[in-house]
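Mods, move this if it's the wrong board.
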Amino acid sequence: MDPFEASLRELMGKDSESVEVEDRRLHQVLRKANRQSGFADLLEMLGHAIEALLIGVTHASSAMKKQSSAPQDTNKE
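Not the wrong board. Structure tokens:
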């Protein structure tokens, strides 16, 4: 049991008659919180990946512009 879960159990208090119900409710709350935080982490990771991709495309396009604007040697012998 992690410290966060232990502190939630302490805050909820335990009556002998409602321990099972409270445990089930706590399990549902923690599962939902983990699911939501996991989804947020996934979106954050996707945002970072898109940002990295856009930075790469920007740098590649600026490199291509520099390369294409370089003077061409048109003297053919």
